[in-house]
Amino acid sequence: MKKLLITLMATVPFIANAGFYAEPYLGYGMGDYENKAGSNADEIGSVVGARLGGSFLGIIGGLEYSKETMALDYKTSSVTDKDADITDMGVFVGYQFPSVIPLLGKVWGSYFFNSDIDVDGTKADGTGLALGLGLAPIPVPLPFLSIHFNLEYRTHEWERDDTAKTKWNDSQYLFSISIPINI
Q1: pTM confidence score
Q2: Is 68 a member of any domain?
Q3: 3-class DSSP state for residue 9?
């Protein structure tokens, strides 16, 4: 009984430090899109999303959702330019640096277990990965709130569910502004 009481007394302060984490973001992305049939395009467009989860001693993790609207500028003149909508749903884990460390905000990685793309009505499903770095150059006087400027690298791979099993992939850089709220 005494050991149980000591264990509870040692762990309760850490559990009390666990918090709620929410981070809406808005940004701009650019990259390369490739259809395995040989069509390559430059992609450029906007992204909006959010990360929602928990935090504990600087470690953050949870679910992520984002929606991208990209314009595909094909490199060959035989293919007309198209629009692509990308929807990502996945999990993220990262580390948010203490506010006493100037400039450095957070680092994170995401795995998108459900990534959908719609290129002018042609749809495909797949997965994706992301790595990011957030900088916090603007001090905010509230301890649970900050403004981050993020640089993120994302890569996706999709496959159409048709007889040809057409594969598409992309790699892109996203620049975004986010407001992580850590309560």
Answers
A1: 0.84
A2: yes
A3: helix
